[in-house]
Write a structure and sequence with these properties.
CATH architecture of one domain: 3-Layer(aba) Sandwich
CATH topology of one domain: Glutaredoxin
Order of helices and strands: HEHHEHEEHHHHHHHHHHHHHHHHH
Largest sheet: 4 strands, mixed
CATH superfamily of one domain: Glutaredoxin
Distance between the termini: 41 Å
Low-confidence stretches: 2-25
Length: 437
């Protein structure tokens, strides 16, 4: 099943973690004072500042602290070149600092001049190599993206330069806004297509190009299908280079096509399903065994989706989903249950019977039992509230809407998202008041 598309807003929050580890002595030695004191120290040492903006609930932040910041090579470079600081972005004294550098996702890894001006701000976890590359660019020891693009214009057939550009492109695009972003997206998309066309063959089967394909090759469905077929045709070689990730590239693309076609009422989805036991059989073999084989699960799910979206047959859909959940047993995830309910609402919400609403509530309650993401939980609570509203059980609807609002208070750092959610919930509560009169 594809990830849930939220009713209110799609934001990924990660599980809560009890603590955030400091870099050990063999890695980065982090300054222990405030941000202002770190800037003062950086001016004394004539160095820029490296700031790791983290939160205590951020899994990737924790992994970087444990696995990247502790590496000898990382520590050696960062301790020499920067005054390094870790800031919990949700602590009261750091909130304004995080806002100043537009921090709204974690980790955010910022290189800042000792005058307080940002040199570069990088969103998302990095491995040691990527972090060192970003650091070298920050101190002028490595070439920046726009300089590299100028080199490419002078040598437009140099595949090595093209590869470097495409590897740097995601972080570069993340820092662009408005018309400037659109300009670079167009350029990079054209560069990507030409690069893949030039290398498609044995030369393309390497880790660096797989990273490029994964990051930039999602715009055109037909081209992505061609890439999935190429990877599948050379799966043993790809798995030698990147492991099971190559197989999951094929699986995830085929599953997405199946779902999209089934929802569109296009029977071509059956052709994609058939691939699971035919040309894509070796790729799907990497999926861990559960109580139901991947082919059988997909047949159940896709046929049910087709009936639900094409014919609004909620009864057949519910029967198929319950069969799937029974066969999955304890392997059924919160996403499986939540997604099943959400498709039911999307496709046939206004036509659901009372019993069908009760079934949706049962699924979502099962999803809530193991879901820890605040955004997912808020979404699920609103879904249950909506069903109780349709069942005219307004007191229960109010209870779940109020709980959704209460849990959204945990999103204080995501102010824009929190505000949108709370406005939506308040509107539902207001509409409920009118229904109760």
């Amino acid at each position: 099943m594809k990830p849930i598309k939220y009713f209110l807003l799609s934001i990924c929050l990660l599980m809560s973690l009890a603590s955030y580890a400091q870099g050990s002595a063999k890695g980065i030695k982090f300054f222990t004072g405030t941000f202002s004191q770190a800037l003062d120290e950086a001016r004394k040492q004539h160095k820029p500042v490296f700031v790791d903006f983290f939160t205590t609930w951020c899994g990737p932040c924790k992994r970087m602290a444990r696995e990247v910041f502790t590496q000898d090579s990382v520590g050696a470079f960062f301790n020499e070149k920067f005054v390094c600081l870790q800031l919990d972005a949700e602590k009261k004294e750091n909130v304004d600092i995080a806002k100043q550098y537009k921090v709204d996702a974690y980790p955010t890894l910022a290189f800042i001049g000792n005058d307080g001006k940002a040199i570069s701000v990088n969103v998302g976890a990095m491995d040691a190599g990527a972090l060192l590359e970003a650091a070298r660019m920050a101190v002028g020891e490595a070439i920046g993206f726009e300089q590299l693009y100028e080199q490419y214009k002078k040598s437009p057939t140099d595949l090595a330069i093209q590869q470097q550009l495409l590897l740097k492109a995601p972080n570069f695009l993340g820092a662009q806004e408005g018309m400037e972003a659109e300009k670079w997206i167009t350029r990079i998309r054209k560069l990507y297509n030409n690069y893949i066309e030039s290398k498609k063959g044995p030369a393309l089967i390497n880790k660096q190009d797989y990273l490029i394909i994964s990051a930039l090759g999602n715009e055109d469905k037909d081209k992505k299908t061609a890439m999935a077929d190429f990877i599948n045709a050379h799966l043993p070689q790809w798995k030698t280079v990147v492991g099971d990730a190559a197989a999951y590239y094929v699986i995830e693309h085929n599953d997405a096509l199946i779902e999209d076609l089934a929802k569109a009422g296009d029977l071509k989805y059956k052709d994609c399903v058939a691939k699971i036991n035919k040309e894509y059989k070796d790729a799907y073999a990497v999926i861990p065994q559960t109580g139901i084989a991947p082919y059988d699960k997909t047949v159940l799910y896709s046929d049910a989706l087709y009936q639900l979206y094409k014919h609004k047959d909620a009864g057949s859909y519910i029967k198929a989903m319950n069969e799937m959940f029974n066969r999955l047993g304890d392997k059924a995830s919160s996403t499986d249950f939540g997604k099943a309910a959400q498709d039911l609402y999307y496709a046939a919400g206004s036509k659901l019977t009372a019993d069908q609403h009760r079934q949706a509530i049962q699924w979502v309650e099962k999803a809530l039992q193991s879901e820890v993401s605040v955004m997912d939980r808020v979404n699920f609570l609103v879904m249950i509230g909506d069903s109780y509203r349709e069942l005219k059980n307004y007191s229960k609807a109010r209870e779940y809407y109020n709980q959704a609002y209460a849990e959204s208070l945990q999103m204080a750092k995501q102010e824009a998202a929190q505000q949108m959610i709370q406005v939506a919930v308040m509107r539902k509560l207001s509409a409920l008041e009118l229904l109760e009169k």
